[in-house]
Amino acid sequence: MKQSLLFLYILLILSIANTGFAYPLDLYPETGIRRIEAARLAVLGEMRGRPQPPGALLPAGFVDLRLLKHPDLKLPEPDPEFSAAVLKLLGSKAGRYGVAVLDLSDPDHPRYAEHRADFTQNVGSVGKIAVAVALYQALADIYTDDIEARKQVLRDTIITADEFILWDHHAVRIWDPDTGVLIFRPLRQGDQGSLWEYIDWMLSISSNAAAAMVMKNAMLLRHFKKDYPVSDDAAERFFKETSRKQLRTLFTQTFLEPFTRSGLNLEHFRQGSFFTRTGKRRVPSGYNSYGTARELMRFLLLMEQGKLVDIFSSREIKRMLYMTERRIRYASSPALYDSAVYFKSGSLYSCKKEPGFRCRKYHGNVKNYMNSVAIVETPAGVKRLHYIATLISNVLYQNSAVDHQTLATYIHRLIEAHHPMPAVPPGELPPAVSFGRNLIGFTAKQEKRAQIARAQTRLLHLGYNVGKIDGKWGSKTRAAVIAFQKKQRLKVDGKITEKLMAQLKTVIETIAPADPAHPDRGTDQ
Questions:
Q1: What are 383-405's pLDDT values in tens digits?
Q2: How crowded is the C-beta side of 2, counted as CA atoms within 13 Å?
Q3: What is the mean pLDDT of residues 85-93?
């Protein structure tokens, strides 16, 4: 029977994640996380690397908690109209989904939608956000009023990967700032990094190996308190000589009690074990893991309010969830290209032999769990749209990663439709053009587009037909520039120069606008 089951369940992958990355790119000097410095240098063109979407380029100062001024906000009752609209997006798959969406674009009047939000299943790597809470709670309990001491532990504690990492296939980026060499591979025994780096690897690339080392060290921190960190030998003796009953008690104190203290319900969200086989063997907790869309929503809401442990811890966890390189699954929706996305996902799929069916990634025919949690701020660095979405699904045979990506687009368009773009005041640039000035690596190309838009705005003010103010160099804009140059007896070359911009400003200040009936030419004096 066992052999038969082994044959039938030919593929089981827990918490699979592709290469997505987190944490603001300008915090290397503070954190020592080498991976983010390599990514920053790639953005600036100083080393090879993957291009980043605009939404991934916020500096740390713009990655912050959005509901600190709304500490009493609770999850509202579901809005019937909003919930019906979300349900419609799910179509025939609605019975295989649990969904919650909280629109916080107007935090004084939040809107909440849900569908089967109490549906429970294993949420895979999403459970790693619970591990982060456990670690930060331990730090807060030991160094309650000393944030710098907490940072020092995170930055200066060097962790050496040991057998707890076995087994895991997720590759991480390891960069040597001295040689400039960047390698991309799974963690191996003997690999070293700071505690902060291991947390980053756990949440950004979703490394199970890194998660196991973070969980191991969270337990050591909880037990040894200010004597942490201890030597590798002392840590090994502790886990070898401590009874299983005592380890289970410590596991409960480390990973479950912090949830209750933060106001979360362990009946609806719990990470009950290590993420690696060896971790489970060394620390047999006896708990299982699960979550619901509603409790995951409450988790993110409490984080935005600074209530996961405390404000420092909540802010750090949110920063760790900030997507800053290749986006996957829900976060990879093209609609979110300009958005700051704070994201975690996890999957679990399994297959059995079936005529005409070939088991593929995210296409399980026995289980096909996909779980996504996301905070979206649109556009990045601008307080216009702000919402949270949590999705739990088990749609068999379908590509669950693509399904979540598609739903991300639909949900985003639904939020946009409820908050239409306000009219742009005369003389101001539309957000689509001015967006990006605060982003890391703001390029000359973006600046050129902004300059074109400024010229378009001034020419339109004078009555010239430039078409749409979009910062794009088109035939109408060029014709308007030439017409203005001729009228002002400037060099007629159809180019936007500093001299042209200055003359436009001077004319606006001294000359009345053109007759609206003839928008293609200025008014003669």
A1: 899 999 999 999 999 999 999 99
A2: 0
A3: 98
Structure tokens at 346: 């996890």
The tokens describing 75, both together, are: 């999850």
We report the CATH number of the domain holding residue 35 as: 3.40.710.10
Residue keyed to tokens 């991480």: 172
pLDDT of residue 441: 79
- pTM beyond 0.90, yes or no: no
Enumerate residues 6+ apart whose C-beta is below 8 A from 303. Answer: 65, 314, 317, 318
Residues 202 and 335 placed together within one structural domain of the fold: yes
Strand ordering across the sheet containing 120-121? 120-121, 290-292, 269-270
Helix axes 311-321, 293-304, angle to 10 degrees: 120
97 beta partners = 393
Would you say the C-alpha torsion 261, 263, 268, 271 has a positive or negative sign? Answer: negative
Cα 374 to Cα 345: distance, rounded to the nearest angstrom: 9
Q: Determine how β-strand 192-194 pairs with β-strand 158-160.
A: antiparallel
pLDDT above 90: residue 124 = yes
Amino acid at the residue 346: G
Q: Is 430 a member of any domain?
A: no
Residue type, 439: L
Write the CB contacts of 34 (distance below 8 Å, at least 6 apart in sequence): 28, 174, 175, 176, 177, 193, 197
Give pLDDT, residue 502. 93
Token code pair at residue 92: 């025939």
Both 331 and 455 in one domain: the answer is no
38 close to 184: Cβ distance less than 8 angstroms: no
User: In this predicted structure, what is the pLDDT of residue 447?
Assistant: 78
Query: 140: closest CA among 305, 342, 306?
Result: 306
Domain enclosing residue 468, as ranges: 443-510
Distances from the Cα of 495 to the Cα of 293, 477, 499, angstroms:
54, 10, 10
Q: Which two tokens stand for residue 242?
A: 């401590």
